[in-house]
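hey can u check if this looks right to u? its 138 residues, i copy pasted from the old doc so theres a chance i mangled smth
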Amino acid sequence: MRALGERLKLARLRRELSTALFAERLGISRDTLNRLEKGDPGIALGTYMRALRVLGLDKDMDAVARDDELGRKLQDAKLPGRRRPRAAASAAPGTAEAEAAPPADQARSKPQSQPRSQPRSQPRSQPDKPRGKPLDKP
């Protein structure tokens, strides 16, 4: 953040903007501008973005993380490889591969649900006292 603050200060000076005028255009105090130009991490990122916009440098923010080389490599590493056909579908009957593989209908079927070993919880009991205001009876 320190380097960004220094670059913003240099950009302000090249445009010959005073600290008072620049702070007014940003909508911040001169003290906050001073902290921004020093790269204070306590300054909101939105304030840095406003400074870039006032200086005409907001288009440069579009380039941030545009070419995320590391991220693309990580994403590519998680992509599944080329799928091979199932051994059961390609194995001829009577071969060792066909005997080792489960039948096609068992391989694709969902597992049967197990019966519950514990009883379901009891329904909530009604409260002893009525809630709210009592109704007037005629």
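The chain has a mean pLDDT of 78.
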